[in-house]
Structure formats: C-alpha cells, structure tokens
Amino acid sequence: MLAPFPDRARINIPPALAGELLEGAERLPLYENKDFYAPELQTLVHSRIREADPDGFDWIVNLIRERIAQWPYCVLLQGLRFDERHRLFVALNRAFGKLIGLPYEEPRAQLVHYIQPATDIRSSRGGLEVERLHTDAVDWEIPIELISMVCVRPDAGGGGRSRVLDLDAIRDEVKTHLGTDTLELLETEPVPWQLHACWGGGLKWRPVLSESSICWRRYTINLALDVNGAKLSDEMLASLDAFEEVITASSHIMDFMMQEGELLFSDNRKQIHARTAIAAGDASNRLMIRSWINATGAE
Known about the structure:
By secondary structure, the chain is of the alpha+beta class. The protein is 31% helix and 19% strand. The N and C termini lie far apart (44 Å). The strands form 3 sheets. Strands 1, 2, 3, 4, 5, 10 and 12 form a 7-stranded mixed beta sheet that branches. A 3-stranded antiparallel beta sheet has the order 9-6-11. It folds into 2 domains: 7-166 and 256-294, Double-stranded beta-helix (4-Layer Sandwich); 176-248, no CATH class. It has 8 helices and 12 strands.
C-alpha cells in the first residue's frame, strides 16, 4: 500500500488572492513560449504580477520556500487560477530563480514545457520512461534544482497519478534492504550519465546518492553504457538493479492525483518522481505544464 500526500505539504490559496493575481497576469501582453527564455522578461513578468498583491504574492512564495525545505520536499498549491499564456506560472517560478530549459524545439523542448502522453519516451524495458521513478535533467552538466508543474487537464480515465519518493525514505530503504555497504557504494562510486546534445554529448560521472541529494534515471545511465561504451563493475551494475527494485517497491511512495489548476513545487535533488500508466495511451488529453528552475544561477 502506498502513502497518501500529506496535508502538511498542501497550501490552499484564498479565492480573492487567486483572483487578484490572475487579473495582474491578464493585464500583461500575450507572450510566446519562446519569449520566456529571456531572463529579463521573466523578471518583468514576476515584478508586474507581484504588484497586483505584493503581500499575498510574497506569502505564497515564502510558504512554498518553507515547505520544500523540509520533508517531503514538495508542496501542492490548490486554488490558484492560471492564465492560458502562463504568465502567472512564470511569475511564481521566477521568485525562486531563473527558468531554464533545453534549446527551443517543439513539442518536447520548451521553457514552459508541455507534458503530454503522445510525446513520452517509450522504455526498452516496457511501458514509458515517465512511469519509472527518476529525477529530472540528469543529462545536464549540473541537474536543475527545482521543478514546478501545473495540471491543466487530468486524464479522464483516472490514469497518470503522480508518485514521489523522498530522499530520507530512499536512504532508509537502501540501508534496510541492501545494507550499508551498498549505500556507501552508491554514495562514493560515480556512474556515467549520457549528456544531452546541447551539452556536447559525452559523459558526466557522478554518484547516485549523497547525504543531501539524489540523481537517478536508469535510462540515462543505460544510454551511457550502450551508446558511449562506458563500463561499470559487476558489483555496481548489480547494485543499480537492486536499487531500482527497492525504490519501485517502497511503501513510502506518495501517490496522488493532481487536479486541474493544482501546482506542485518539488526539490529535484531530494525526490524522485513518476506517473502511473494511462489506459487511453496517446489518445489521452492529459496535459501538464512544467518548468525547471535554477535557484543558484538566477540573474
């Protein structure tokens, strides 16, 4: 049995505040997705929308910051009302740093990124890669810090439930089921990650775990092994297999269905996430929008 999403990680936005912020967003011009790559525009949108209710805007931002700094390292906001051109979404994200993304290329690479079943990567091991627990941007030189995601439309059949597992639970699961030697191996022996073409391809070597972070996507490690000819010891390969089995079977995985208009902020260094299968497959009209945020590299 999986765990429910905790009430302590939910924030309910008062209707009056939600209305003021939406009105502030709709007073701005209609920007294209590509326009938001400019940090200056991100800053402008943030400042103008914050002016609609500075105290209310800062209250939301401070609560998000407070909640994601502690277990379960994510927060679900309910009650916000988002404009169709994502200005409020960008404004809230910019409060935490610079929005970043892969070079623009529809449909998979956009700063305000559209997540739809039809564009999900199929797994050679069955199903879709998005259905396997992972962190984002492991194929970057430095993985991003924060993830922000809004549910535009949930799957009509109830598929695509969100699942997250926090770093504390992951480390406990490894200690309990695999032992301290395996935990130490995952912390100290780097593994190869196939870098995205925008970073020149090639490999980046880093460990899966540390005391304060996790970097995990078996798909990207496998690409490094299969495409770039990287080599790992038999012990490490067996440990990666066992690690994946243990986290997949964890009863600490939080399982919840995001509803229309809900916003999820997550610390990408302290959580792994996935979604459940969608029976309708590519025919589902489920739509999420996502942003990656670089907090330390903000301009």
